[in-house]
Amino acid sequence: MTPRCCAVHVHTTLCDGRDTPEAMAAAAFAAGVRHLGFSCHSHTPIPDDQGAVLPADMTEYRSRVLALREAYAGRMEVLLGLEWDSQSDVSPAGFDYWIGSVHYQSGGGKFYAADWGEAQFAACRDELHGGDALAVTEGYFAQVAAVAARRPTILGHLDLITKHNAGGRLFDESAPRYRDAALAALHAADPAATLLEINTGGVARGYRAVPYPALFLLREWRAMGGRVILTSDAHSADAIVFGYDQAAELARAAGFSHSAVLTAAGTAHCSL
Ligand SMILES: [Zn+2]
Ligand SMILES: [Zn+2]
């Protein structure tokens, strides 16, 4: 078993992915994945999300994934997961696992995306936080803390708010206020219940040079006794295990010797 045999942060055309569940499964199997989990975005009431997240009725999603479980039985395990958004209006119960993620802050009847770029960040800063950029990050991490406290199987892209912050152009990631907010979110997670993902999706799509989350957060998670799992947040069939070598290197730099593999029988751990 190697980290590369597990891919459990996977999107499809049923949310905002480019490829069908069937195409993602075929690509995963060809890439050597033996524990594949689908994690389409959960439904939210946000108008801009419609069509990019699952419908509130997840019957088709369930049946497509469960059909793939049958089709690959004995060759590759297929898990039914969900990337549950903090604004979601459906429950993450009833899935094999769930990834808890924050993609928005809300206020004044509006939603501000954490990962849609500078204009959304600036609007959130100026309309919700009086022009205080670090307050945007504190608002984001307060939501991450609330999701972490719900004990997701995996805590998703912990510091997604840094996606468009190359060179510190939106805020200072070394500021004590920033670091304190991020660490408080991490401390809200239970290392015995939740895995932290090292997510290469931002690298795969060209937004970042390194995976989420930052090294200081991984080191703190290690000190807390936490475990990590490598994920690609794949939105296309060519990215199923994108950047796992880089993610493994980051994990080792933080002191981890193993990463988690989700299986139908529970969580296993393999050497990095
Ligand atoms: Zn996400
Ligand atoms: Zn995702």
Describe the structure.
The chain has a single domain (3-103, 146-271), classed as Metal-dependent hydrolases (TIM Barrel, Alpha-Beta Barrel), CATH 3.20.20. The chain has helices spanning 21-30, 59-71, 118-128, 133-148, 176-187, 201-204, 215-223, 244-253; strands at 6-7, 35-38, 77-85, 97-101, 104-107, 110-113, 154-155, 195-199, 227-231, 258-263, 266-271. The longest helix is centred in the middle third of the chain and has 16 residues, at 133-148. The chain has a seven-stranded parallel β-sheet with strand order 1-2-3-4-7-8-9. The protein starts with 5 loop residues before the first strand and ends with a strand. It has eight helices and eleven strands. With 272 residues, it is α/β, with parallel strands linked by helices. One zinc ion is lined by residues 83, 101, 103, 156-157.
